[in-house]
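Lab notebook, design round three. We kept the backbone fixed and only want residue identities now. Task for the bench partner: fill in a sequence for the structure below.
Input structure tokens:
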């Protein structure tokens, strides 16, 4: 008797990027590097509010890297 494990990936918002995702997402634009996650998230959200881009992610590399969808 075996058990089956669900294969669905956990849902993540674009802002929750991991170290493995620090490489350039296809078609996205590098906007800047920040010393803190909070600074990156703030800059990303400001861009959304100003309609500069629709989505962003802060990838954790050596520093926090802000990527946007346009």
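Proposed sequence:
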């Amino acid at each position: 008797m075996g058990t089956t494990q669900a294969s669905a990936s956990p849902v993540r918002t674009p802002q929750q990027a991991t170290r493995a995702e620090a490489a350039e997402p296809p078609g996205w634009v590098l906007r800047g590097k920040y010393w803190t996650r909070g600074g990156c998230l703030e800059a990303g959200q400001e861009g959304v509010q100003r309609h500069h881009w629709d989505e962003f992610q802060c990838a954790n590399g050596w520093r926090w890297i802000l990527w946007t969808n346009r």
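Keep this in mind before ordering anything: The radius of gyration is 15 Å.
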